[in-house]
Amino acid sequence: MGLAMTVLMLAPAEGACLRALEAIPAGAYPLKEELAAEPCGAAKPEVALRFEPASRFVRATRMIEQGDVVAAVPPAYLADVRPGQKVRLSAHIGSVAIEREVEAVQPGRTGGKLFVRGADGKAFAIAYPGDVK
Question: How confident is the prediction for the chain on average, in pLDDT?
Fold first, then answer.
């Protein structure tokens, strides 16, 4: 038995574009906050974001400069946190609160599971509430 893999190239919705609010390096997972919806007008937008099935997010296929307009992708494919970002993890038990900073080891979205690494180097999963520091 063989394993078949499908690569998805996302076709932009007619007239849908995204403007980069910040520079996004090639290979990076763009964050929702780094892109803003914009009408394309008569221009045909360049496809600069590719869906990565393993992560279920898109990555930049090239350097996207601030102000560049690219073809839109579904918002669900944009990350809220990218690998390497610091995340504050909080646990509350009664009136006691424990907090620690951890680092994301994969892209993630608010409300989803996210693997993070603690100061001791061990990786573990958390429910990502969306409070990136």
Answer: 86
Euclidean distance between CA atoms 25 and 108, whole angstroms = 18
pLDDT tens digits, one per residue of 4-63: 443 444 444 456 899 999 999 999 999 999 999 998 878 788 889 999 999 999 999 999
pLDDT of res. 53: 93
Residues whose CB is less than 8 angstroms from the CB of residue 22 and which lie 6 or more positions away in sequence, other chains included: 34, 66
Q: Which of 46, 34, 91 has the alpha carbon at shortest distance from 72?
A: 46
Contacts of 128 (CB under 8 A, 6+ apart): 80, 81, 87, 108, 109, 110, 111, 112, 113, 114
Residue 19, SS3 per DSSP: strand
Specify the number of domains making up the chain: 2
Q: What is the maximal distance between C-alpha atoms in the chain? A: 58
Residues 102 and 59 in one domain: no
pTM for this one?
0.77
- Nearest to residue 69, comparing CAs of 4, 107, 132, 12? 12
Domain that holds residue 53: 16-77
Q: Could you tell me if residue 55 is inside a domain?
A: yes
